[in-house]
Write a structure and sequence with these properties.
α1 (about 1-25) packs antiparallel against α4 (about 75-105) and α19 (about 490-505) packs across α22. β17 (about 810) and β18 (about 815) form a beta hairpin. It contains 37 helices and 19 strands. By secondary structure, it is an alpha/beta fold.
Length: about 1000
């Protein structure tokens, strides 16, 4: 037995070493896109990220970041390494879980504790350890898990928590007869408590653990007992999700409001009394268990306490928020705001079991739960959340078609034959559940991991062994590093393992099946996803692929059984089965390496630094969220790049807590010039100002308008149908007087633009409403008096620019707002006057384009968006110099653009045809025509492909290729190449009518 145990440990650590080496080699050296920049920044300085936070991850990330020893450029790779190690430890615990299950199968010990000291033979040992290695390595090289392993996100650590609790429960099962076996259950409780501070996905393993407990403690399991076990397990999950996580802080908040408002105690005394009462309950619970001699009650109390100990990592959220850090999302510095933070109230909710469908019409709005804020020595109600009431006949069970957004309804129609204003039937509702939510958003992801993936294009499908050869597909698909074909070998092996496991050990197969279902399809039901997402969500379901990897491992034993009639010797049979089984992780590693290797990718952080280096000193920069902001946060908070710039996230400017933060100094950045008093931007006040036309008002002075808003003037007030008073704006025409003499003295207007300086800016706000974020921007324009440079990121959507584009100046990757009107501005053309000398200095000398010229580096769909933005800016800068007659600098810019972003590494995109005219102008006609031919051929291939597949899912790609052809046509016309222009038109006529 000792020999097997030693080998089990040795091989487990060898598998761990392979996974660790793989992840460290392919690790991203800096902050990836999406939430990674935010999490790395918040780990480094223990800041407060978006709700519900991840304090356990942040604390461990902070520890890892200390090993940078002051080299801030190493912080990101160290926090990423935390994910890598979390992932490789997950693989290790998966290995040991598989070998425990495999040993029961091989040794024919489905009944616990039968011959516990029996030593496996060499052949049996080889088979058991081989099963563990194959299953663990298959999971290690699975697409979604590998993706999570090489970036600083919470999902790798969440998978580790799941793997640990499953392994511990298996250990408990083998030791349940020992007197102190409950210590394993208490350890599980502690891990669960810690996992709450990472991600809640770990809780979905509890039903499977409940059945391990039931089968081990029950001599004769029954169907009724199994049903009760499932019910109790779900109650435990619900108690943690609703009772412990938000429930205890919610009760503490109620105590706080009562004892402060009704009893008159100082702030925080209600929380103190609640904590003392909770401690008293825990004390009397333990006392009762000792008096009655109840092991069950005592263990239950210990489990509760250890969950609380793990959950206590969340205390860093209000503690750190109380110090007003630079990233402090939702400002959860007291118990009431902390509860809102935990409940993710800013994101709203979705109906799950019963609710309205998309055509439901609201019949009423009622005031819901109050939101309290501190005022003086009391808590006062700032607002009451409005709850929309719908008719009962407009509601349905398990509503899947629920979103009334016009864009969502259009996407619903891609999957189900529904009409916009007609109530969907239950059949249509369930059809969307099975076809989209389960089929497209779960099974597609599952098959990506074990069959093959078409490409990194969003909505891309599965590559089966019988699918079209990669060489016959469009380059963007077949030539993508993300085009992986596993020949369905991992899937087949997993199915062999599933059937063999179910035949030989039905109980444990059922437990693994529960884990598979609850971390897969159950999440689908809970998330109730809308019909379109901003990115693929496969990372959510790695718990399900973890469970299936167990069956992949056990498939090795299944293969050995199939070979029993051919190969009689145990060792030979085990060796052949292992060799066949290793094909699964082998092909997964070989196919997946190039698209999971991020070792030389710097594009996200370089894009952030380039954006910051586009700006004048002490600038204000308005950005979108996520990929437009989080890399900026990383660059400023971790590497200290351009901390004089204040990044203002437009969506957050709709909240009072964020506006309040913007009014504080941050590093070298002074407070933003916001003149409005806090009571005029508090949540529930001036959230939006509707347009209510007043014919007597032809134009409105922006400064006077902001002053009227700040005075809550009767001149702007209108009554809603509910009788509530709102401020409005009486005309779309706004103007801002400009002190031209002061502006000239400031030197912010380039010499060539001085004649464009205007005595007053005039623009049309458009109809609809002015959101709070727009109001804040207008306030800053009126208040700053051009003392602070104000910029919009070039990726901000035009609707947030409030029609200020005639006053934009392009200086790099951002538009500066100046009181100078571009005389050539055309709303159908490009935005922003090109300040060519300033932009040349920024793009040619300050910007970094690390490894964008290396074709070995993999750039996925998200990573290609910023280089496309660079190309557009290079093209505009080139055109500006050609218009000024400077061909020398124009050619320098062209050479730079194609040197730092060649087609081999960053494929030509929609903006590339803009270079054709300038290339011909500087004598590079052959290169220009090569671009036209290349892009025409690629667009033709892509459109032909999408016209024969489910093209409705790829509207963006189809539109992009049609626009590319249009751009090719325009470029060909510009250089008078009629043949190429005619071909582009022919293709447009062929494919455009289909849209």
């Amino acid at each position: 037995m000792h020999r097997y145990k030693s080998l089990n440990n040795l091989v487990g650590w060898l598998v761990f070493a392979i996974a660790t080496l793989t992840y460290l080699i392919t690790l991203e050296p800096t902050a990836s896109y999406w939430d990674c920049g935010e999490f790395i920044a918040c780990s480094y300085k223990l800041l407060v990220p978006h709700p519900p936070g991840a304090p356990t991850f942040l604390l461990l990330g902070r520890i890892f970041s200390l090993f940078s020893f002051g080299d801030v450029t190493k912080v990101a790779v160290l926090v990423n390494a935390l994910s890598a190690l979390s992932s490789s430890f997950t693989v290790l615990f998966l290995f040991w879980t598989i070998t425990m299950l495999a040993k029961k199968l091989v040794m024919h010990r489905a009944v616990p504790n039968l011959e516990p000291n029996l030593e496996p033979t060499f052949g049996q040992t080889l088979l058991i350890l081989g099963a563990g290695a194959v299953g663990a390595l298959a999971f290690a090289f699975s697409d979604s898990f590998w993706f999570n392993a090489v970036e600083g996100e919470v999902y790798a650590m969440s998978s580790l928590c799941t793997a640990v609790v499953v392994w511990i429960m298996m250990k408990w099962e083998n030791r349940a007869h020992e007197a102190d076996s409950d210590k394993w259950l208490i350890l599980i409780a502690y891990i669960i408590g810690l996992s709450i501070g990472v991600h809640l996905l770990n809780l979905l393993a509890l039903p499977a653990l409940g059945f391990i407990y039931y089968y081990r403690r029950t001599a004769n399991p029954t169907l009724l007992g199994g049903i009760l076990t499932l019910v109790v397990s779900m109650i435990i999950v619900g108690s943690i999700l609703a009772g412990i996580i938000p429930g205890l802080p919610t009760i503490a908040g109620a105590f706080e409001v009562f004892f402060v408002n009704s009893v008159g105690l100082p702030f925080n005394w209600g929380v103190i009394i609640f904590v003392l009462l909770l401690l008293a309950i825990i004390y009397f619970g333990f006392r009762y268990s000792y008096r009655k001699g109840s092991q069950l009650v005592n263990t239950g109390m210990l489990v509760f306490v250890f969950i609380l100990i793990g959950y206590s990592s969340y205390l860093i959220v209000p503690i750190r928020s109380g110090f007003n850090p630079t990233i402090d999302e939702n400002k959860p510095d007291d118990v009431l705001s902390f509860v809102s933070y935990l409940k993710r109230e800013q994101y709203g909710d979705r109906p799950l079991l019963y609710g309205p469908q998309f055509s439901a019409q609201p019949v009423d709005q009622v005031e819901g739960a109050p939101r309290y804020v501190r005022e003086g020595d009391k808590y006062v109600i700032a607002e009451r959340r409005l709850e929309t009431i719908y008719r009962d006949e407009d509601k349905m069970l398990l509503p899947r078609l629920y979103s009334p957004q016009p864009d969502h309804i259009r996407y619903y129609q891609k999957w189900v034959d529904v009409q916009p204003e007609v109530k969907p039937t239950m059949g249509q509702n369930l059809s969307f559940l099975f076809r989209y939510q389960m089929g497209h958003m779960y099974w597609r992801y599952f098959l990506w991991n074990f069959v093959g993936r078409e490409s990194d294009v969003q909505q891309s499908g599965v590559v089966w062994p019988t699918s079209t050869s990669a060489s016959e597909l469009p380059v963007r698909i077949g030539g993508s590093k993300a085009h992986n074909n596993f020949l369905a070998i991992p899937l087949i092996l997993g199915l062999v393992g599933l059937f063999f496991h179910a035949q030989r050990d039905g109980r444990n197969a059922f437990i693994v099946g529960l884990l598979f279902l609850f971390t897969g399809l159950a999440i689908v039901l809970y998330l109730n996803q809308p019909p379109i997402e901003p990115r693929e969500r496969d990372y959510t379901f790695t718990g399900s692929t973890y469970a299936f990897a167990i069956w992949i491992g056990l498939g090795v034993i299944g293969l050995a059984e199939l070979l029993r009639s051919i190969l009689k010797a145990d060792t030979v049979r085990a060796g052949v089965a292992l060799a066949l089984g290793l094909l699964a992780p082998g092909i997964m590693a070989a196919q997946g390496w190039d698209d999971h290797d991020r070792s030389d990718r710097y594009s996200s952080v370089d894009s952030a630094k380039n954006l910051l280096n586009s700006l004048a000193p002490n600038a204000i920069l308005f950005t979108n969220g996520d990929n437009d902001t989080f890399p900026l946060w990383y660059a400023q908070e971790v590497e200290g790049v351009r901390t004089d710039v204040r990044v203002a996230v437009l969506s957050y400017l709709n909240t009072d807590w964020y506006i309040e933060q913007m009014r504080r100094r941050a590093y070298k950045s002074q407070p933003l010039p916001i003149s409005m008093k806090p009571q005029n931007y508090v949540q529930g006040t001036n959230d939006y100002l509707p347009f209510v036309e007043n014919p007597a008002v032809q134009q409105v002075n922006l400064k006077e308008f902001i002053q009227l808003v700040d005075e809550n003037s009767q001149l702007l007030q209108v009554q809603t149908q509910s009788g509530r008073s709102l401020l409005s704006f009486p005309t779309k025409k706004f103007f801002l007087p400009v002190d031209t003499a002061a502006v000239m003295r400031s030197g912010i207007i380039p010499a060539e633009r001085r004649k464009q300086l205007v005595p007053r800016m005039e623009w049309d706000m458009g109809g609809g409403a002015i959101e709070k974020k727009n109001l804040v921007i207008l306030d800053m324009l009126a208040t700053s008096n051009w003392q602070r440079p104000i910029y919009f990121s070039s990726t901000v959507v035009p609707s947030d620019m409030m029609n200020l584009q005639p006053y934009f100046q392009l200086e790099g990757m951002a538009y500066r707002v100046l009181p100078a009107r571009d005389p050539n501005y055309d709303p159908r053309g490009n935005e922003g006057y090109v300040a060519k000398d300033l932009m040349f200095e920024n793009m040619m000398k300050k910007f970094a384009f690390r490894n964008l010229n290396d074709p070995k580096v993999y750039y996925d769909e998200n990573s290609l968006r910023f280089p496309a933005n660079y190309r557009e800016k290079f093209a505009r800068l080139t055109e500006a110099y050609l218009a000024a007659g400077d061909k020398v600098k124009a050619k320098q810019i062209l050479d730079k653009a194609f040197t730092v972003m060649p087609d081999a590494s960053i494929p030509y995109d929609y903006y590339t045809p803009q270079f054709v005219g300038p290339l011909v102008a500087v004598g590079e006609r052959k290169k220009a025509t090569d671009i036209l031919d290349t892009m025409t051929n690629r667009a033709q291939q892509a459109l032909a492909y999408y016209s024969t597949t489910n093209g409705s899912l790829f509207e963006m790609e189809i539109q992009s290729n049609l626009l590319t052809l249009q751009s090719v046509y325009q470029a060909a016309e510009q250089i008078k190449d009629q043949a190429r222009a005619a071909k582009a038109v022919e293709l447009l006529n062929q494919y455009y009518p289909r849209q």
